């Protein structure tokens, strides 16, 4: 999914029906060495990533602090698909969104 996709204007959080923000893969937006530990390797060898691992792309609801994964280009917008984001990650995501 790309940021110009018209679908993004009509997608809404399944819980509060508010707008969602597209989160791009972090390795493309990180610019400082200090944040490198937050990067989820896209092509790391070994077993597949656990379901709780940060997805490559996601839709984020900053009001409820919930992240919904995008799998194979398809947003997973079931309430059970959303993942609650901890406070420190929420603050980091807000900085990414506002910059």
What report would you give on this structure?
The chain is an alpha+beta fold. The protein is built from three helices and five strands; from the N terminus they run H-E-H-E-E-E-E-H. The protein has helices at 7-10, 26-29, 87-98, and strands at residues 21-23, 58-61, 66-71, 74-75, 83-84. Strands 1, 2, 3, 4 and 5 form a five-stranded antiparallel β-sheet that branches. The protein is globular, with a radius of gyration of 13 Å.
Can you summarize this structure?
The protein has 99 residues and is of the alpha+beta class.
Order of helices and strands: HEHEEEEH
Low-confidence stretches: 28-55
Broad shape:
globular
Overall pLDDT metric: 78
The main pleated sheet reads as: 5 strands, antiparallel
| Count of helix runs | 3
**Would you report the number of β strands?**
5
For this entry, give a set of tags:
99 residues; alpha+beta; single chain; five-stranded antiparallel sheet; globular; 20% helix
List the helices and strands and how they pair.
Layout: H1 7-10, E1 21-23, H2 26-29, E2 58-61, E3 66-71, E4 74-75, E5 83-84, H3 87-98
Antiparallel strand pairs: 1-2, 2-3, 3-4, 3-5
